[in-house]
Amino acid sequence: MRRAVRWLCTLLILVTHTTMAREIHSQASLYQNILVTQVGSLRCMQFTVRRDQRNQSCVDMRRPRELVFAYTRMMLAGLLFNPAPQRILMVGLGGGSLPSTLASLYPEAWIDVVEIDPAVVTVARDYFGFLPSAHMQIFEQDARVWGKRAASRPTRYDLIVLDAFNGDYIPEHLMTREYLQETANLLTNDGVLVSNTFAISALYHNESVTYAAVFGSFYNFKSPDTANRIVIIPRGAPVERMQLEANAGKLRAALKPYGVPITSYPARLVTQVDWDTHARVLTDQYAPANLLQGQ
Amino acid sequence: MRRVLINVLAFTGGFVIMSLELLGGRVLAPYFGSSIYVWGSIITVFMLSLAIGYLCGGRLSMRQPSLQRFALLFLVGAVLTYPLVLYGDAIMRLVFDAIEDPRYGSLVAASALFALPTIVLGMISPYSVRLLVTEAGHAGNVAGSLYFISTLGSALGTLLTSFYLVLWFEIDTIVTLLAGTLVVIAIVGLVGGRRA
């Protein structure tokens, strides 16, 4: 009986979502199916055709600047540790809302975006109003390969944002100790690494010990609103809570139009170990992230 | 007995080839990514190597075919597989530095790492057919059942590697296990060949 009710509920949600969400565009790329849907003024980019999947990237077309998802806003917490980045690297474009936000917050900053799927770049441009600024460069490449080449160039970044996991399939070579090390080497001395990643499933433990293996301690930023967590790793000297709050105060006005409650963030950043420290570290040799996530 | 032994060897060969091919994607990913062309490179190299292996294996079976020579193929296969563990990283770094385009980089790296062992493992199929065919009238039947067994091995190698082995072991451990299996099976073949 209970199962029947649950089944009916699921069916109901599926049907309503299917009938309410208008499909605007769909495109099959080499890597995924990209679907653009709209409900009311909310336009979303989804990476699979399964309708019960959470939306990957959404823009409220009436208030295009506002960041729709909690985890997108939370990624800006990295700015608390380096409030004036001059060079920014983004891995994973999505709908482009975060690069756009950073570009308008820091018009002088140089922003490099690495996105493996050219179709995502096209869809972001055509349907999400993503307009790369003159200071922005987009590389349609595998982030691991790009990063390895970048190591031999002199450019180093004040802020690196890893946002390459769309929840459905994890590029396993972007979740290993070696990749994190390679990425850390691209940071300036007071640079910050911000990673949007998973807060649930067995993978949480493996991923946490992997970050710990490379960086020692790191900040975990979770929210009850989302199955994501944001990992924040400042490379420079430890920053006192007072300083974080002072920085939040300075950023508050600038971040308001994007709906980012930055002053509430410092209190929510924790370094406490809440994972199984005996979990296996993910390496290039051992990287079954997708299998672990399913467990 | 001899027949069973040859079938076991053919099965193992099939298993190792596909297990190696699947690991290839993992091995190349840190240097060349996991884009579709990396898989394209790997599959191309394996198909080309198998093609050459079939040709050479057939030729080789013309000259004094024996179970012992057959078993030696497995030993050579093991010896050619193991450098992947020892020099894989160094080879990929060289290729990465020399070739900018990850398509051709992955093609060259996959050739350097996998072509030789796969050619030798490809020789197994035609050679095993030669060992078991006694009359021309049965040749198709013998070949059919050998392909059946070795492809079954390939299916199992694919499944076990992708579902479980990568979850339990490091890649180098799996490659070592595969090479070790080839050595063990070669010794079994050599001993069995002496008795026969």
Name the descriptors.
heterodimer, A: 7-stranded mixed beta sheet, 4-stranded antiparallel beta sheet, 32% helix, globular, B: mainly alpha, 8 helices, 88% helix
Could you walk me through the main structural features you see in this protein, from its secondary elements to its overall organization?
The complex is a heterodimer of chains A (295) and B (196). Chain A has 295 residues and is of the alpha/beta class. Chain A contains nine helices and eleven strands. Chain A has helices at residues 2-20, 70-75, 97-105, 118-127, 143-150, 177-184, 203-215, 241-255, 289-294; strands at 22-28, 33-39, 42-46, 57-60, 87-91, 110-114, 136-139, 157-162, 187-198, 219-222, 228-234. In chain A, the strands form two sheets. Chain A has a seven-stranded mixed beta sheet with strand order 7-6-5-8-9-11-10, with helices on both faces. Chain A has a four-stranded antiparallel beta sheet with strand order 1-2-3-4, sandwiched between helices. In chain A, strand 5, helix 3 and strand 6 (110-114) form a beta-alpha-beta unit. The longest helix of chain A is centred in the first third of the chain and has 19 residues, at 2-20. The model of chain A has no long low-confidence stretch (mean pLDDT 88). Chain B is mostly helical and 196 residues long. In chain B, helix 3 packs antiparallel against helix 6. The chains are: A alpha/beta (295), B mainly alpha (196). Chain A binds chain B through residues 30-31, 116, 141-145, 148-149, 171-173, 176, 178-179, 283-288, 291-292, and chain B through 26, 29-36, 96, 100, 102, 163, 166-167, 169-172.
